[in-house]
C-alpha cells in the first residue's frame, strides 16, 4: 500500500516537493520550539516516509540525519530529495528497514535525538516493543521526541467531532479497504488494504517510561495538519475546529530523555 502511494505523494501538492526544494523546512512551529536547537546534533527519524521532515532538521543545523522507513520506494524518494538539496550521505542517510529492526539497520548505535513525526504509531501493533527499540537508539544524555495525532480523535464522529462513536480503549487491529490517500483522496489506487492499531496516551507514555526514558513534558495541541473532521477550517496555517466549537486535543507531543 505504501509503496504504491509514494509516487502520488512525490508528485502531488500535499508535500509540494518543488516548493520544499526552495523552503527546505516543513516542520511545525511547536516541534521546532520543543526540540530546540539541533545544531551539531545527530538525529534519527524513525518511519520517515519520503524524508521531508528528516531533511528539515538537516536544514536547521543537525550535523547528521538518518531516516528509516520500511518502504523502499519512499527511501529512494528521500535519497533523491537529499541529493537535490545537496546533502551527501555523510550529512543525510536513508535506510530501508522495519522500525522494530532499526538497531541493526542504522549506521550508528545511538543518536542525540530520536524523532518520530505525525501519523507513525498507528501502523505499529506493539507499542512497548517500539518504545524499547527507540529508547535503545537514544544516546546517554539525548532524548526522544514524538509528535503524534491524539488518540482521542479516533473515538469521535468524522463529521463534527462532537460524538463519541468508537471505543477509546480498543486494542484490536482495525482493517480498512480505502482507495486514495490522505494526500490525494481522489488518487486511483489498487493496493488499498491497511491495518491500524489504537494506542492510548497512557499506553505510549507508560511504554516509554518502562523503556527507561524520563518524561520531560507532554503537551496537547488544538490544531491538526489535515482536515481530520469535515467541519474543520484553516486558520493560521493549521486545520482547526470552527471558532465556536469546543476545543479538544488534536495532536500531542512529548520529550523523554535518557539520563
Give a structural overview.
It is a single chain. This protein has 259 residues and is an alpha/beta fold. The chain has a single domain, classed as 3-Layer(aba) Sandwich (Rossmann fold), CATH 3.40.50.150. 27% of the residues lie in helices and 24% in strands. It has 8 helices and 11 strands. The protein has helices spanning 2-11, 17-23, 29-35, 52-59, 72-84, 102-105, 127-136, 201-210; strands at residues 42-46, 64-69, 92-96, 111-116, 138-149, 174-177, 193-196, 214-221, 233-235, 238-240, 251-257. The strands form 3 sheets. Strands 3-2-1-4-5-11-8 form a 7-stranded mixed β-sheet, with helices on both faces. Strands 6-7 form a two-stranded antiparallel sheet. It starts with a helix and ends with a strand. Pfam families: Methyltransf_12. One of its GO terms (molecular function) is 3-demethylubiquinol 3-O-methyltransferase activity. Residues 44-144 form the Methyltransferase type domain.
* Span of the ends, CA to CA: 39 Å
Radius of gyration: 18 Å
CATH class: Alpha Beta
Q: State the shape.
A: globular
Q: What's the architecture, going by CATH? A: 3-Layer(aba) Sandwich
The number of strands is: 11
Number of domains: 1
Discrete helix count: 8
The largest sheet, given as strand count, sense and whether it forms a barrel, is: 7 strands, mixed
The portion of residues forming beta strands comes to 15-25%
Residue-averaged pLDDT: 97
Helix content: 25-40%
Strand order of the largest sheet: 3-2-1-4-5-11-8
Q: Topology as H/E string?
A: HHHEHEHEHEHEEEHEEEE
| Name of the CATH superfamily | Vaccinia Virus protein VP39
